[in-house]
Amino acid sequence: MDRRETLKTLLVGTVAGGAVLTGAAACKQDVGAEVVDSVEEAIEGGGYGRTPKELEHDKKLHAETYFKEHEMATIAVLCDIILPADEVSGSATDAEVPAFVEFIVKDLPYHQLPLRGGLMWIDHEANRRFEKDFISSSDAQQIEIIEDIAYPSMKEGEEEELLPFAQGIKFFSLMRDLTLTGFYTSKIGIKDLGYVGNRANIWDGVPDEVLKKHGLAYEEEWLAKCIDQDTRMDIATWDAEGNLLT
Amino acid sequence: MQIIEQPKVYDVVIIGSGAGGGMAAKRLSEQGLTVAIIEAGPFFDPKNPAQKTQMKWPWESPRRGASSVRDFGDFDMAYGGWDIEGEPYTTKDDTEFEWFRSRMLGGRTNHWGRISLRFGPDDFKKKNIDGLGENWPIGYEDVKPYYDKVDKLIGIFGSKENIRNEPDGFFLPPPKPRLHELYYIKAARKAGVAVMPSRLSILTKAINKDRGVCFYCRQCSRSCSVYADFSSGSCLIFPAQKAGNQIDLYVNSMAREILTDDEGRATGVSYISKDDRKEYRIKGKVVVLAASACESARLLLNSKSKQHPNGLGNSSNVVGKYLHDSTGSSRMAFVPELMNRDRYNEDGVGGLHVYTPWWLDNKKLDFPRGYHIEIWGGMGMPSYGFGFNVNSMNKYLGMKVGGYGSQLKEDARKFYGAFIGVSGRGESVAMKDNYCEIDPNVVDEFGIPVLRFHYKWTDFERKQARHMHNTFEEIFTEMGGEILGDKPTKEQDYGLLKPGQIIHEVGTTRMGSDPKTSVTNQFGQLHDANNVFVVDGGTFVSQADKNPTWTILALAWRASDYIGGELKKMNI
Q: A217-236 pLDDT, tens per residue?
């Protein structure tokens, strides 16, 4: 495969992730490849590599609706209580977490009952306390309930099941897990997290300043065995004993 | 229903297109032989944009990569899994065996871990060392030339270490360790555990003009679109076809049985097309089984005839016996020193940059065979499950677990990349009483009788798993890590995974000099039918504490040279 072809192959898919410039820049610099002719050429294919059967399955799930309007509205409020917008990044609803929750309960149906029941539980709790459902309650009232269900036990010997509001705690923990996972697998979340991979690059070891921070250093002997990245494109040849010559 | 005869007669019909089948197809076609490959799944090329998952982001999957559709997640490149609709298998006597199948061109080589370890001199002669099991009929010196050729043809990174039972090869230089791997190196050494650069079939350096060089995305399990890792299609079958050799691919074709004549010699293969559900026959002078250890045993056992009433190649009654998988157990730790890490791209290659080879002498231990340790961790790409129990480690820091609000984002960032995991992968002792056989009551959707498994671990494996966890805890303690989860107990088999789960199943058609106790000779040739060969993991007499692929490749090359020679000499 020549370098140009390598780059073209590489770029398919990276555009969707918004990494085309980084990818192309990295390739140009590191692989010595040319830049693709057009973005259209680079994004050919699309999708995420489904087999025909998998594609049908996805379509079927997308066509179904599980949560009712009120349930979705409650999920949205809960998601943003769990992950609000702040100076670092947007909110869970900015990252379209509620849509993810709707999909994932169809994909993993064992989440359905705990969420549907939990949503009823929290409405009941709000009604009991404030004679309103959860989303109609004031911010302060909502937080009053959340405070009671947001902290699974952390004391030695104390069991979560024995805490007051144990069912609410279970429900909120699941909401928190799904919200976090939906958020940190979104574009907004990955930026918030600072994951900077999934692009063509050349790994050449831990940056020096990081090594220093951790009080570590590469040993000369180990380093001597490792790839000199300046020679990565030179075709390997060996002597009869397997010593690399190039 | 009429059976359709394919008009062309091939020199060789190969069943299966994974490591063994791909290598056989390449080496046999290069000798001028016409080759047909029968593959149960569809055509696959990692370069094909419609099939590609490499470089996709988690949000491109609506389930964010969850494993509800593909067992190792949406982006993993294996079509199939532990359970395939319409293709069941069964167990008996409370056996818990898991069988992973990948139905696609290239089979499981498209998603595997690329850990490519040669067996050493001791690995072929374990009976000489501990009196258990059986020796191979060949030794390291017989296979070494082929390991060398495989290294140079396919490419593998590693380092020369001069360890007797971890033979060196023709290596490309390994990548530098990642941060968590440096923590591992330091801690392992303090615990007296060996550690060295890993050996993976990934191109850190060019080996030819046809394949790309690794661009460090850590996604080998998605199969590399620039062919910088080893998959059977991209590295063996496609190059052989491109060079003008004659390899015809029969995809979506489920082999049913091997056809034999009145002399008991193979004449070809019958298969069912998944496209039209019709049965076809394809003729070949030689039949090569490369369908995976269990699938090949199934084919032989289902190929009954007057001459082979017990199944083809099964006069010994050994087909299906001595099934064994690697042992496996894992543990994880939270490393407080790795909290609040600086961000940089540390994807690296699709797997470990360092590993621990077996470093002890079993004569001084209460179990007979060794294990190696694989290391994982780092700031990887999030997918479904990331952020679950986001701050449960706060309990070690005297801080609140749970909560809501911006604090959770801070927690997610704080703990990102602060975990390290280790997995032991060890050698089990091959037992005659661990086997697969034909289930007399069940057929798959093609009417083909299915396999039934019987498999029990022994104390050899349980004690080894106990030793693994003792080692893991020592290393984590030296690392200053908080060891997660309780140490598995005796009742939990010391954390030993179920047989089959490591996906290194081998031994079902073992080789040997004595036709009474083995299925093939040292070249994978059936004792009972000299034009039928096995080139998958079935011929393994014993699995080392190594991953089997590199040995499958070397033995398939060796068998292919032998087949070519025998055909020339008109011996088969």
A: 999 999 999 999 999 999 99
* pLDDT tens-digit readout, B231-271: 999 999 999 999 999 999 999 999 999 999 999 999 999 99
Bridge partners, residue B80, by sequence? B102
**Are B355 and B413 in contact, with CB atoms under 8 Å apart?**
no
- Residue A207 and residue B408: Cβ atoms within 8 Å? no
Find the distance separating the first CA and the last CA of chain B, reported in whole Å. Answer: 33
pLDDT bin (cut points 50, 70, 90) of residue A6 is very low
Angle between helices B549-568 and B140-154 (to 10 degrees): 100
Look at residue B90 and give its three-state secondary structure: strand
pLDDT tier at B489, thresholds 50, 70, 90: very high
- The residues near B240 (Cβ < 8 Å, ≥ 6 apart) are B25, B26, B29, B30, B247
Pairwise CA distance, residues B429 & B132, whole Å: 7
Sign (positive or negative) of CA dihedral B230, B233, B238, B241: positive
Going by DSSP bridges, is the β-strand pair B371-377/B419-426 parallel, antiparallel, or unpaired?
antiparallel
Of B42, B66, B404, the CB nearest to A146: B404
Contact A214 B337 (CB under 8 A): yes
Q: Which amino acid is at B359?
A: W
How would you label B489-518 residue by residue, b for 16+ Cβ within 10 Å and e otherwise? eeeebbbbbebbbbbbbbbbbbbbeebeeb
The secondary structure of B268-307, three-state, reads: EEEEEECCCCCEEEEEEEEEEECCCHHHHHHHHHCCCCCC
Q: Residue B542 and residue A235: Cα distance in Å, rounded?
A: 36
- Residue B382 contacts residue A189 (beta carbons within 8 Å): yes
Contacts of B348 in chain A (CB under 8 A): 203
Mean pLDDT across the stretch A61-79? 98
Residue A13 has pLDDT above 60, yes or no: no
Would you say residue A157 has pLDDT above 90?
no
pLDDT digits (tens, 9 = 90+) for B299-343: 999 999 999 999 999 999 999 999 999 999 999 999 999 999 999
Q: What residues pair up with B533 in beta bridges, in sequence order?
A: B288, B525
Would you give the DSSP letter of residue B351? S
Residue B487: which H helix or E strand, with range?
none
Q: β-strand B354-356 against B196-197: which pairing, if any?
A: antiparallel
Tell me the mean pLDDT in the region A158-170. Answer: 82
Q: Which residue has the tokens 């069943």?
A: B15
Q: Is residue A55's pLDDT more than 80?
A: yes
pLDDT in tens, B528-541: 999 999 999 999 99
State chain B's mean pLDDT as an integer.
Answer: 97
Which three-class secondary structure state does DSSP give residue B373? strand
Q: Is the predicted pLDDT of residue B403 greater than 80, yes or no? A: yes
Q: Which residue has the tokens 């940089």?
A: B344
Q: DSSP letters of A64-112?
A: ---S-HHHHHHHHHHHHHHS---SSS--TTTTTHHHHHHHHHHHSGGGH
| Of the partner residues B68, B77, B408, the one whose CB lies closest to the CB of residue A107 | B68
Q: What is the DSSP secondary structure assignment for residue B246, as one 8-state letter?
A: -
The reported pLDDT for the residue numbered B6 is 87
Contact of A70 with chain B, judged by CB distance below 8 Å, is answered with no
Convert the pLDDT of each residue in B427-439 to its tens digit: 999 999 999 999 9
Residues in chain B with CB shorter than 8 Å from the CB of A17 are 55-57, 60
- Do B544 and B120 meet the contact criterion of CB atoms below 8 Å apart? yes
d(CA B311, CA B297): 9
Is residue B376 classed exposed, middle or buried when 0-12, 13-18 and 19+ CB atoms within 10 A define those classes?
Answer: middle
A112 contact B CB<8A: no
